[in-house]
Amino acid sequence: MQIQLITDSSADLPIELKEKLKIKTIPLYVHFGKKQYASDELDTFTYFKKIREATDFPISSAPGPHVYYELFKEVPKDQAIIFMGISAGISSAYNNAVMAMNLLLEEQPERKIEVINTKTASPGLILLLDEAGKRIEDGYNFDELVKHLYDRVEHTATFFILKTVENLVRGGRLDKVKGAIAKTLNIKLLLYADKNGRVEVMEKIRGDKKSIRRFIAQIGEYVSSAEDKVITLTHCQAIDRANHIIEEINKKYSFKQTILSEIGPVISTHAGEGGIVISFFKDKRD
């Protein structure tokens, strides 16, 4: 039985991986006031241009269950479906996808379909989808792959380094006083996705170079050897910064494969310009 992989636009998939694995993608939304855009309608440059011009900070949202249902239903009945989208800890998207799955199974109980709470986004989804594709090539059947992916979710580490706290302040995730102090003192935030997939502050570090060194050093706290591992990295309009970090990571750890992609509008709402996010499989599960 063939397996159709489906995700949402928070995955920030590189086009090569999307085409290779024939991944279907459901767009999430960003809202500027009363104006709604599907995330695939805006490139990152246009998105930030709108932010600079807007009086209200944009918010992101998920489509309703019917959008997921319609896409699931389009998949031929003789193909299994695995959906992996943005963490349930930061979006209603997962619950909407589950409702769509249950509706489809009521109508077509013979279907094989699984909606997985990935507890991550952006490079974490790239990592999990890449892993799924490799295991499909290895001949995993649907049940074997679902079991393996649930295990991989618990091994997924996702870390963020933000160049600016402006988006967190404007989005209401960091109060203005703390934001002003952080900007005045050149404080950089290191964040991570916790065991429930929520984004939390790990450390506050003064200075960009020092924060990058710490960002890279923390990888070694989770992996003893990287030669057989993949690391994924997404950046928010910061290709030179991203390439520098990749170069420094591979000097220290020698990952087997590195996958690089650009952050789209949904994750940019939180990461801000210059933001970098990495994911890899750690040695021990949560």
TrEMBL record:
<dbReference type="InterPro" id="IPR050270">
    <property type="entry name" value="DegV_domain_contain"/>
</dbReference>
<keyword id="KW-0446">Lipid-binding</keyword>
<protein>
    <submittedName>
        <fullName>DegV family protein</fullName>
    </submittedName>
</protein>
<dbReference type="InterPro" id="IPR003797">
    <property type="entry name" value="DegV"/>
</dbReference>
<dbReference type="GO" id="GO:0008289">
    <property type="term" value="F:lipid binding"/>
</dbReference>
<dbReference type="InterPro" id="IPR043168">
    <property type="entry name" value="DegV_C"/>
</dbReference>
<dbReference type="Pfam" id="PF02645">
    <property type="entry name" value="DegV"/>
</dbReference>
